[in-house]
Amino acid sequence: MRESEGEERCAGHGDDRAPGEGHVVLTGHIDVPADRLEQIRAALPDHIRLTRAEPGCIAFELRESAEIPGRFEVRERFADACAFRAHQARVQASDWGRISAGLARHYTVRGLPE
After folding, report:
1. What was the pLDDT predicted at 114?
2. Which domain holds residue 69?
3. pLDDT single digits (tens) 64-93
4. Is the pLDDT of residue 16 over 80?
5. In a domain, 34, yes or no
6. What is the C-alpha separation between 91 and 50, in angstroms, rounded?
7. Mean pLDDT over all residues of the chain?
8. Are 99 and 93 in contact (CB under 8 A)?
9. Is residue 92 assigned to a domain?
10. Whole-angstrom Cα distance, residue 9 to residue 2?
11. Lowest-confidence range among 2-16, 33-47, 65-79?
12. pLDDT at 24 over 90
């Protein structure tokens, strides 16, 4: 796809943006059935470490709910749509992507261009 057809350029941004301007924020949760909890818990540390090390990752929290068994709360903030999309691509090709495949995800994403 050419840029003129809607593909966005993934060049770096200068420091002239206001804090939060252009950020992509994902919030929500993942529901994990009891028979997959141990596998998910074991995979979390690497997934969190790798995500936080990604270029453009500003914040990443994925933690087990204290109130709802099997629920993992997710909060992500990326510098821009390019960083967010790169994260999504990495996750799909990762061990976490394989281990968490098919889980019910309930997310809201703000900041992606339409």
Report:
1. 72
2. 21-110
3. 999 999 999 999 999 999 999 999 999 999
4. no
5. yes
6. 9
7. 87
8. no
9. yes
10. 10
11. 2-16
12. yes
Asked if residue 8 is part of any domain, the answer here is: no
Q: Is residue 16 part of a domain?
A: no
Give this prediction's pTM. 0.82
Task: Quote the crossing angle between the two packed helices 37-52 and 81-92, to the nearest 10°.
Answer: 140
Query: Looking at this protein, which amino acid is placed at residue 99?
Result: I
Q: What is the 3-state secondary structure (H, E, C) of the chain?
A: CCHHHCCCCCCCCCCCCCCCCCCEEEEEEEECCHHHHHHHHHHHHHHHHHHHCCCCEEEEEEEECCCCCCEEEEEEEECCHHHHHHHHHHHHCCHHHHHCCCCEEEEEEECCCC
31: domain CATH number is: 3.30.70.100
Is the dihedral angle over the CA atoms 23, 6, 93, 12 positive or is it negative?
negative
Number of compact structural domains in the chain:
1
